[in-house]
Design brief:
homodimer, 253 residues, alpha/beta, 4-stranded antiparallel β-sheet, 9 helices, 36% helix
Chain lengths: 253, 253
């Protein structure tokens, strides 16, 4: 259960192609891991289409609910890149040509290549703070607790890394994986008892069923490495007691 | 923009491991394509944790907004499988041991292997209609417009296929991809003009930037194959006129 003092985040993935499943999103995995390291709990992700009304509603809904909101996608130069305009509307501000963003694009492009289509990427909501793009020039932006990032994962990641000093988190969230050949139903009862013994370590059970092999990936999450290690040790004992095998154990780095 | 007469759907992916990005979701791509074929517009996806209050709020919010709601995950036998109880709470009904579900599990397991932990998978909200599981016995269920499915993709897919006669859609939604080496900013203006000429064909522009190569995947979506073909032909002419190449063109099956 979410604690009132936790720092939370919501990721809004904007793009018809992600939503149709034709393009596999890669940004959730990147942002999820970076939030863990920063001690920020990514507690929801929404995938929405390139439709202004949907973006406005979702951004306004989420920025009221979560400490931080990250959006990815829709800040390029084409007609379907409507995120900047939609976020401006969500905040009731105008989109203006941002001189700092023009300068960033100007530094990136060879003389003569900063076309009007590219300049569209300098149209940013009034009052926004830019997010530097060390890869391809076009900046993202921050309005209050909303951080607007591009959809291309390598560029998004480089820009997210530049945000570390603007994001206030907590203790890093650690993950430990214990992979076993036991069936979920076999370990269910003991796992529940162990979860009750370690309320501060979140225990998830994820069955796998592929290439004819069944088993469970047991995932422990928490902020106290010693407690997690103790819980994982007890879990290994439980598995052995049920005549199962620990196939793999991945401890926090 | 969404039309008032469109049949829409929302997918709710339930699971901490998907949300943390450690497990890559595969169900969105499956359900997205099946919705296209059924003429159902999957217009939102939400990824939420295994937290009862979050599931209740999200299910109630979404079932009021969309024609259909699909959930994946959280219907197994372990302590973190709370979807059935949470959906029951969303509908203000009790969870009861469903005799039809017990029979289905009984047919699946060898005598003596239907343990109490496994029987938990027959605890279903009162009044729900079961969704047959041809792979591993444990059923999903439907309450009004909400369809509760498991998280394991191969099982989820087999169960979704059994729903065809319960889902009323429209004309199948077709997709055509045109991959070009042109930069997004180069094609932006002509693409916008083409989008205006074909308002019934949704045109998306998705830049790629990998292994040092830049380009755009242009995606056309609509229900009229002839119109999409005409639009894609014109798009190829536009690309040639800008000295670009069509690297690949994938038409609807």
């Amino acid at each position: 259960m979410q604690q009132p003092d936790q720092i939370t985040a919501c990721l809004i993935i904007i793009g018809n192609e992600i939503l149709s499943g034709r393009t596999q999103d890669a940004n959730l995995a990147i942002i999820g891991k970076k939030c863990d390291a920063l001690g920020i709990r990514l507690t929801e992700t929404r995938i929405i289409p390139d439709v202004e009304a949907d973006i406005v509603t979702t951004v306004n809904n989420c920025r009221a609910q979560f400490t931080y909101v990250f959006t990815t996608g829709g800040i390029g130069p084409t007609h379907d890149d409507i995120t900047a305009a939609a976020v401006a509307r969500a905040f009731n501000v105008e989109v203006v040509r941002n001189e700092e963003a023009v300068d960033a694009l100007d530094r990136y492009y060879e003389p003569g290549f900063l076309t009007e289509a590219r300049l569209k990427m300098a149209d940013i909501p009034e009052g926004a703070r830019l997010i530097d793009n060390p890869v391809s020039g076009a900046p993202g932006f921050q309005l209050e607790n909303v951080f607007v990032l591009p959809g291309v994962p390598s560029i998004m990641e480089a820009m997210f890394d530049g945000l570390a000093d603007r994001l206030v988190g907590g203790d890093p969230i650690l993950t430990e994986n214990v992979l076993t050949n036991l069936l979920e139903s076999v370990i269910a009862k003991d796992l529940e008892a162990l979860q009750e013994k370690y309320p501060d370590v979140n225990m998830g059970s994820y069955p796998y069923f592929r290439k004819g092999k069944l088993g469970v990936n047991l995932v422990l999450r928490g902020t106290d490495g010693d407690r997690m290690n103790d819980a994982a040790d007890e879990l290994a004992t439980v598995i052995a007691g049920l005549n199962g095998k620990v196939l793999n154990r991945l401890s926090p780095a």
